[in-house]
Write a structure and sequence with these properties.
Layout: H1 3-15, H2 18-37, H3 42-45, H4 51-63, H5 66-78, H6 85-109, H7 114-119, H8 121-125, H9 134-155, H10 158-175, H11 194-209, H12 218-242, H13 251-254, H14 260-273, H15 280-289, H16 293-300, H17 303-310, H18 324-353, H19 356-375
Helix pairs in contact: 2-5, 2-15, 2-16, 2-18, 4-12, 5-11, 5-14, 6-19, 9-11, 10-11, 12-14, 16-18
Length: about 375
């Protein structure tokens, strides 16, 4: 490696957003924790308006930033990039590895799951189109739209982007949350959609391109997060107290990924972690764990893992002391997170051993050359 190449490599290393990578890891941990609290049965089992109820709400809403922040991270780090087909192919192989691999393991070691797997054979082999992982299905569509989004980001001025995002926030998060029809007025599927991921991508790109974190001090970001979390807890409590006398409720929309507080909390978290500058040891740990975080999602939300190990497994936490319950839930989530990280480290090792990434790059070059030849 000559001097110029060494300088370029050092520059690329320095340019890596380690604070954002740390947020990626934290967001995935928060998603696991939310699943422990929600699908795990804590929310259904907790006694309304008890200390445990408020401990549960506080812990839940403190972590509800995760999906929105994860979506913004994509825009933050990719708005200058050219999406590569090889990356999409590698990602597809990773999704297939877990979708089919976990299913096969259940077939081998738990015979009772065989009828279920036969019924879901299509979604097992085609997890993106089979609807097995909502985020991956939406992300694949987003990935194909990134060149269009990046072209728009490049052309729009700062004022135009700011006005666009402000208008979308008012329309979808504010006005959309205040309707009483119990319908999704803008077809955002409450944040589980490609359209919402595109909007989060634009928001993350805007924060990165114009370095918004330099305008928001850490105390301001922390205050914003605290106000959003406390406001959501109080609003949810008020709605539960008065549900019997109200002809409609708003909590179904104000507590989804397109809600005002979830979106703002994700925004503040993004700009808070954009300021983080970890030390060398922390950088190595972050660089190791960040690429594995997606595997945590793919493993623990697999339908069979979900039903066997997550669903209603942690309702007993609702009976714990209100001070212990958040710690116990976090410890359980950390164990799930760590096990999934270990499994995905093995998956990454197998992919390197089989040289799947170089294979995907060769396929990309072959397809690119064929397309270019066709153009002539």
């Amino acid at each position: 490696m000559n001097r110029q190449q060494a300088l370029q490599a050092a520059s690329a290393k320095d340019a890596r957003h380690y604070g954002i990578d740390l947020l990626r890891i934290l967001s995935m941990f928060s998603i696991v924790l939310l699943h422990v609290l929600g699908e795990g049965g804590v929310g259904q089992a907790v006694e309304p308006f008890s200390r445990n109820y408020y401990a549960y709400l506080s812990l839940r809403f403190l972590n509800e930033f995760a999906v929105d922040a994860y979506g913004m991270i994509t825009g933050y780090v990719m708005y200058k990039s050219r999406p590569k087909l090889s990356r999409l192919l590698t990602l597809w192989l990773e999704v297939l590895f877990y979708s089919a691999g976990i299913s096969v393991l259940f077939m081998l070691f738990q015979r009772s799951s065989v009828p279920v797997l036969r019924a879901e054979f299509y979604s097992m082999l085609l997890p993106i189109t089979g609807g097995r992982y909502w985020y991956m299905s939406c992300y694949f569509c987003l990935f194909l739209l990134i060149p269009v989004l990046n072209a728009g980001i490049e052309k729009l001025s700062r004022a135009e982007m700011r006005n666009l995002l402000a208008s979308l926030f008012l329309l979808i998060c504010v006005f959309g949350s205040l309707n009483t029809s119990r319908k999704d007025p803008f077809c955002m599927n409450y944040g589980f959609s490609t359209a919402w991921l595109c909007i989060l991508y634009l928001a993350g790109a805007f924060c990165s391109k114009y370095q918004i974190h330099t305008r928001i001090r850490p105390w301001q970001a922390l205050l914003g997060i605290a106000v959003c979390v406390l406001g959501t807890v109080l609003f949810k409590s008020w709605m539960d107290h008065n549900r019997w006398r109200l002809s409609y409720t708003l909590d179904w929309m104000l507590m989804s990924n397109v809600s005002i507080t979830y979106t703002l909390t994700g925004f503040f978290m993004l700009n808070l972690f954009a300021r983080v500058r970890p030390g060398e040891t922390a950088r190595r740990i972050i660089a190791l764990l960040s690429p594995l975080s997606l595997g945590v999602y793919l493993i623990h939300v697999h339908p069979l893992v979900w039903s066997q190990f997550i669903t209603s497994r942690f309702a007993w936490l609702a009976g714990s002391h209100w001070l212990l319950m958040p710690l116990q839930a976090a410890a359980i989530a950390l164990c799930i997170f760590a096990v999934c990280l270990g499994i995905d480290w093995i998956r990454a090792f197998l992919f390197r051993l089989l040289r799947l990434e170089p294979l995907c790059r060769r396929i990309e070059r072959l397809l690119t050359s064929r397309c270019q030849a066709g153009d002539h």
